[in-house]
Write a structure and sequence with these properties.
Elements lengths: L27 H17 L3 H6 L4 H14 L4 E12 L2 E11 L6 E12 L2 E4 L14 E8 L6 E2 L8 E10 L7 H12 L3 H10 L6 E7 H11 L5 E2 L2 E6 L7 H4 L2 E3 L2 H7 L12 E3 L2 H5 L1 H5 L3 E8 L10 E5 L7 E2 L4 H11 L6 E6 L6 E6 L7 H4 L9 H11 L7 E4 L2 E4 L2 E4 L7 E4 H6 L3 H9 L5 H7 L24 H7 L10 H13 L23 H16 L11 E11 L6 E13 L2 E9 L5 H14 L4
Parallel strand pairs: 6-15
Antiparallel strand pairs: 1-2, 2-3, 3-4, 5-13, 7-8, 7-9, 7-10, 11-12, 13-14, 16-17, 16-24, 18-21, 19-20, 22-23, 23-24
């Protein structure tokens, strides 16, 4: 698609061979050429009055040119004048018309102007053929632009994830409203949209305009039909949309498709020229938006001669056509069975809950799920303190020094004071002196603070980076890769060791950390199969460190803080409770991060976050529901 060359009907004649002459030159061909160039220049510049004034019938020409501007909305004309022929008071000028159509390929065709000699020069004959040689009296052009069928976004098996789906547009016809406050209240109760917002939209709408409230899939509409169907003024036109299997199905990754917004149209413009138009079905978020051009393809058009009333003149009088070019499919690593189990698991919680699942060894994101209470994008881009899930990374740093092994005796007092600030274990439990594995399995904060303070200041950040934490992942859909400071000291350094302080993670990144531990190869996230790597694979921890860490994570499940998962196969993990905010007692997020080997869907690494869950127990429960819901491969 070529870029726009000027304002609407406002480009100049860049290919004119000679300047427009103000008076006769004494050479008839030059005078004719000048008259034709002047007419075309005014037409291209949008000066209809000047162009029409240079014709044999200004009124008829005005009507013709204005109709053409309507038929080819916002198009820009670039004329190229060619051969001139003069014969006894009449002349013809061959020219090429090139229309830069909005959000469509250019339309170019050869045309001819007829001119007649007048008292003061030459006038263009006002006739439909000056617009197009096949346009006759009482006819106009019909431009029909269309997009190709949107290319598929598929699952790991190559099956499309989006399909045309019936939807019901719940809205208001202002002309039928008898009691706006009651209508707004009724629609609000059924849809959850604020009554004040509904009323304001109706009051602001022009007369006779449909006012949308919410668009629902047919089953969701049927669930509220009895509440809304008889409300005076409520109307329910149906439509078809390209939708994923369910409203929340991997929405953080896949995104959604819908009528183009002004923001998306501006985002997709090329050199200021729109690639797409209002009303187009475009990607509004996720991969559907990030890979817009690849999935949408290139628009095409047809131009047909029709009667003035819009009725087709002669059947088949199509003047020109450019077929739309289909886009290219995008294959994701999503596995439907895993995604479905994840969706069912997060739905067991009323609090905002996220679950991200990654394939160890490949980094492929096989599921990403958030329940209705959650902002779905936070599964990828949320920045949360990870709490004791961070102890996977802290243990990596401690084991890498060689001063600790899983069997090394370590102190686990109920409280620990750093620079006058007291930290404690949950309920101030005190294990005395226990092997490092036991302190890890029971999530002893005081142990990790004591030991963490002995590490070099940058050791925790170095261990985190070995799993890819802090990497600027180059992905279609952003993933926050975490932040672990390398220069913290004192109380902040101690708090960082237990995932508090200044440490931040996303659920997706913690799942990637678990994947790296499971496979021994740090995981680089994969959102699109076959895409360029999202970043460099980190060097990773030493194999001996991982060999020591994995049994510690297994012990968390066998006898530690996630023992309720002991019957879910070969599961490894780490719980986490992460305090945040200023409330007393503080609010806390609940985490579980880990992996399952040789499960019904193969090796899977995952991270679960329950926002404000207050303890890791709720995240363990979601994990239990997830693992229990995985079907046999």
């Amino acid at each position: 698609m070529r870029t726009r060359r000027g304002t609407v009907l406002g480009s100049t004649l860049t290919l004119l061979a000679v300047p427009v002459l103000a008076a006769c030159s004494g050479n008839a061909e030059d005078d004719v050429r000048s008259a034709a160039e002047a007419f075309l220049a005014d037409w291209a510049a949008g000066d209809t009055a000047a162009a029409a004034g240079a014709t044999t019938d200004p009124a008829a020409a005005t009507t013709l040119l204005e109709q053409t501007a309507t038929d080819l909305p916002e198009a820009t004309l670039s004329p190229d004048v060619g051969q001139v022929s003069v014969d006894d008071g009449t002349a013809t000028v061959g020219w090429t018309a090139t229309w830069d159509l909005v959000a469509a390929p250019d339309w170019s065709y050869p045309a001819t102007l007829r001119l007649q000699e007048a008292d003061e020069g030459w006038d263009v004959v006002a006739e439909p053929a000056l617009v197009h040689p096949e346009l006759g009296e009482g006819q106009r052009l019909l431009l029909e632009r269309r997009l190709p069928e949107r290319a598929a976004v598929t699952d790991a098996g190559g099956q499309p994830l989006f399909a045309p789906t019936e939807v019901v547009n719940v809205g208001v016809d202002p002309a039928q409203v008898t009691d706006l406050p009651a209508l707004a209240a009724g629609l609000s109760a059924a849809t959850g949209i604020a009554a004040e917002e509904i009323a304001a939209d109706v009051q602001a709408a022009p007369g006779g305009q449909f006012v949308p409230v919410i668009t629902l899939r047919r089953p969701d509409f049927e669930a509220i039909r009895a509440q809304v169907f008889d409300l005076p003024g409520a109307v329910f036109p149906t439509d078809t949309r390209l939708l994923a299997p369910s409203p929340r199905f991997a929405s953080a990754l896949l995104g959604r498709v819908g009528p183009a917004t002004a923001e998306v149209l501006e985002e997709t413009a090329e050199d200021g020229a729109p690639r797409y138009a209002a009303g187009d079905e475009l990607g509004l978020s996720g991969l559907q938006r990030a890979l817009q051009e690849q999935l949408t393809g290139t628009p095409g058009f047809t131009v047909t001669v029709v009667g003035a009333d819009g009725a087709t003149g002669d059947p088949g009088r199509q003047l020109d056509a450019v077929e739309p070019v289909p886009g290219e499919p995008v294959r994701t690593p999503l596995v439907r069975a895993v995604q479905t189990a994840a969706d069912a698991a997060v739905a067991t919680q009323q609090l905002p809950t996220h679950l991200v699942v990654v394939r160890p060894g490949t980094g492929e994101i096989v599921a990403v799920s958030s329940n209705e209470a959650a902002a779905a994008g936070n599964a990828f881009t949320g920045q949360y303190p990870p709490g004791s899930s961070m102890k996977m990374i802290s243990a990596t740093a401690l084991l890498a020094t060689g001063t600790l092994t899983p069997q090394t005796p370590v102190a686990c007092p109920g409280t620990f004071v750093v620079e006058g600030r007291e930290f404690e274990n949950a309920d101030q439990f005190d294990l005395g002196t226990v092997p490092f594995t036991e302190a890890f399995a029971q999530s002893c904060n005081t142990t990790f603070m004591q030991q963490g303070l002995q590490l070099p200041d940058d050791a925790l950040a170095t261990a985190a980076a070995s799993y890819g934490v802090g990497t600027d992942w180059q992905l279609p859909v952003d993933v926050f890769s975490g932040d672990v400071p390398a220069d913290s000291t004192g109380t902040t350094k101690a708090a960082n060791a237990i995932g508090q302080g200044q440490v931040l993670m996303s659920p997706a990144q913690l799942a990637l950390v678990a994947a790296g531990i499971a496979s021994g190869t740090p995981a680089v996230p994969v959102e699109v199969v076959g895409a360029e790597p999202a970043g460099q694979v980190p060097a990773g921890p030493d194999a001996a460190v991982l060999d020591a860490l994995r049994p510690m994570m297994r012990q968390v499940v066998l006898s530690g803080t996630a023992s309720s998962l002991a019957d879910r196969g070969e599961v490894y993990g780490k719980t986490g409770t992460a305090e945040f905010g200023t409330n007393t007692p503080p609010d806390a997020h609940g985490w579980f991060t880990g992996y399952q080997l040789a499960g019904p869907q193969g090796d899977l690494a995952f991270a679960v976050l329950v926002e404000s869950g207050q303890s890791s127990g709720v995240a363990v429960d979601v994990t239990d529901a997830f693992l229990g819901g995985l079907p046999q491969a």
